[in-house]
Amino acid sequence: MGVASRGLGRELRALRMEKKLSMRNAADKLGWQSSKISRIENGQQGISPTDAASLLAVYGVTGHERERLLARVEKTEDLSLLEVRGGLSRESHTLIELEAEADRIFNLEPLWLPGLLQTADYTRAVMKACHVPEGDIEVRVVARMGRQTVLGKENAPEVEFAIDEGALRRPIVSSRLMSRQLRQICETAERGNVTVRVLPFSLGGHNGLDGSLEILTFARNSPIVYLDHGISGFFLEEGYQVAFYQTEMARLREIALGPEESVDFIAAIAKDLGQE
């Protein structure tokens, strides 16, 4: 099973422990084997909406929290059946779900502008530059634009972007469209839950040049790191792995321009491009 199933399993385990029930106690109430609950909690076995509803009843979960968890079960069930659909990989679908569940997101991009900040024109140009099949491009553009709704939803996560100056200046689209793209980043940074930090050329080399990464933090589950590698991606969950990237994040935050200075920096590039 994937990261999405393991994350759901950890959340169900936390609910069971809050209720002070052992696996055997919970299983006895449902007429299950305790090994079934163990497999669900460890992400080794998916869970149907019906079984999830039964577990939540035993754990005394009702109202909005019950609805949220059942909706997550349905999403996870769909993701577990995915190989590749509509031009999106299993990892991409999982990332979309995790972003929707996260309380905080840190995204480092040294080469491209962050997907959560891209305009449709920029995304389309990136897909073409990366030789994505023509028939898949529009599906991916729509999916990426859909991802961005997480920034403005109710109870939206705190999202922090670290962007290398090279990504800001790389002419992926025309000067006019690039100027519009950068202005959109400045406008998005006005949201109270969004912070943008620039890693300027003046830094020379820095630890953020190793590659893009995303750190997702959750209220009830352990953090997850996502590393994007073109046609695939890797999710890291081990404590020492997450701690390493959290340290890298802290170092980048120390050397990057501050939020206000970063927005002014991006706006100046946008202005210059708009005059070309």
TrEMBL record:
InterPro entries tied to this protein: Cro/C1-type_HTH, DUF5753, Lambda_DNA-bd_dom_sf
Protein name: Helix-turn-helix protein
Domain of life the protein comes from: Bacteria
A Pfam family annotated for this UniProt entry: HTH_31
Segments forming domain HTH cro/C1-type: 12-66
Organism: Actinorugispora endophytica
One MF annotation (Gene Ontology) recorded for this entry: DNA binding
